[in-house]
Amino acid sequence: MVLIPRGEGRVKASSGGEGFRVPPVRHLVLWLTTACNLQCAYCYRGSQRAVTMPLNVMASALGLAASSGQPFHVQLAGGEPTLEPDLVAAAGRWIRQKKLPCTLALQTNGTLLDSHLAEVCRRYGITLGVSVDGPPAVQQRLRGGAAATYRALGLLAHHNIPLCVTTVLSSGNVDHLGELVLALSAFPNVRGLGLDPVVCKGEALTLKNPFPSHESLEAGIRNMAATLLKVNGLRTVPIAWREWDAVLGAMAGGRKERAYCHACRGESLAVCPEGKAYPCSQTVGDPAMEAGTVDGVDWERLKHLFRGLELKGDCGECPLDGRCPGDCPSRLHYNGPAGSSSLCRVYQAIMNHIQERTIHERTENLLFQCHGHGAAVSQRGCVPLP
Questions:
Q1: Please, which residues have CB within 8 angstroms of residue 53's CB and are 6 or more apart in sequence?
Q2: What is the pLDDT of residues 374-386, one digit of tens each?
Q3: What global pTM score does this model have?
Q4: With the C-alpha atoms ordered 327, 111, 203, 299, is the resulting torsion angle positive or negative?
Q5: Interstrand relation of 277-278 and 268-271 (parallel, antiparallel or unpaired)
Q6: Can you give the pLDDT at residue 23?
Q7: Confidence class of residue 2 from pLDDT cuts 50, 70 and 90?
Q8: Contacts of 167 (CB under 8 A, 6+ apart)
Q9: Distance CA 260, CA 326 (A)
Q10: Residue 10 has pLDDT above 60, yes or no
Q11: How far is Cα 201 from Cα 44, in angstroms, rounded to an integer?
């Protein structure tokens, strides 16, 4: 196990040097297992033999992340991490007993969630992310196990455990985004929804046309926005849409100064069961992305793997030019120019929807005032979805 006095953060780097100032690990991904019980059409995991993370590797990774003394986030992933429920519990127990300054999350396909795991998540304050790519029929076609996944959403609702949904955006589900929102509206514990464009790695490389067309993406995002607006008007707790919030934040925040994620700054570390280190979860298993091991991280390599990778699109006339929320660097790396515009189109479609909605509401207000209904009515402006 790596033991470093709090606040010092000096270990020998695998790239050489007697002492190397370790950057704080602000985002730690633990791949509890490479195994999975589903065969998703576009899984970036690819073909990996089934390996389970030993407790000493988990402890080393957590000790390394905690060594800076700064707050960090831990994500339990894979593979399918709930294939190893004892490791999920062990991670939660270890973190709480050591009183580490971190948050803990579990990313799962949901098919194996049961009352025991729900109680483990509640006991250790583990937040949940569930992968749902469409209404049941679409989920079954793209991932399999749809009935079990939707049953898990109901189970978590019964236990009053909130969750966020992650959706892989592809040509296979872009026409069903509005239906996805309607399906999720049945579960009051769904708090958020985020779109992750498909990554051309692993199984996705076998697909003929994984990326949605610009036209279908524009239509799908508009349908999703309109549906979510109606759904949230009927919910006690609205469903937040990550990309919508990112666009609103960019519009209000002026010029962009923040990196898209911690991996852009070399502050993210993904550890596979064998102890190999990578910059993020999507790069696990790629020899070209290895950065040492958890006991000897190549920090210089980790810091520079994603240097210069930024979302580039038709920025000239885009209202978000200079303040774009950006995109995942590993997705930009694997997708190349052909697939790097998906999130750009998502942002632009959201922006167009916001602008059109603002114009529509202002026109409504002006018409209302012109018809002489009392005193002037203040403009409502654009009402955010969440």
A1: 30, 31, 32, 33, 84, 87, 271, 272, 273
A2: 443 333 334 344 4
A3: 0.86
A4: positive
A5: antiparallel
A6: 77
A7: very low
A8: 131, 132, 133, 134, 173, 177, 180, 193, 194, 195, 196
A9: 6
A10: no
A11: 5
Under DSSP, the state recorded for 52 is B
Is residue 349 a part of any domain in this protein? Answer: no
Contacts 24+ apart (CB under 8 A), 114-121: 114/155, 115/155, 115/159, 116/85, 117/82, 117/85, 117/88, 118/155, 118/156, 118/159, 118/161, 119/159, 120/85, 120/88, 120/89, 120/92, 121/92, 121/161
Supply the Cα-derived Rg of the chain in whole angstroms: 22
Between CA 108 and CA 99 the distance in angstroms is 25
Mean of the per-residue pLDDT values of the chain: 86
pLDDT in tens, 296-332: 999 999 888 987 777 766 677 777 888 888 888 999 9
Domain that holds residue 268: 23-304
CB 197 within 8 Å of CB 224: no
| φ, ψ of residue 23 in degrees (nearest 5) | -65, 150
Residue 19: pLDDT over 60: no
Count: domains in the chain: 1
| CATH code of the domain containing 68 | 3.20.20.70
What average pLDDT does the segment 111-120 reach? 97
pLDDT of residue 22: 65
**Is 32 among the domain residues?**
yes
- According to DSSP, the residues that pair with 30 across neighbouring strands are 76, 271
Phi then psi dihedrals of residue 306, to 5 deg = -110, 15
In a domain, residue 309? The reply is no
Please check whether residue 280 lies inside any domain of the structure: yes
Distance of CA 220 to the CA centre of its chain: 19
User: What is the pLDDT at residue 262?
Assistant: 87
Nearest of 130, 133, 205 to residue 172 by alpha carbon: 133
Residue 62 has phi, psi (to 5 degrees) of -65, -40
Query: What tokens appear for 241 in the block?
Result: 């849409």
Band (pLDDT 50/70/90 cuts) for residue 341 is confident
pLDDT of residue 367: 61
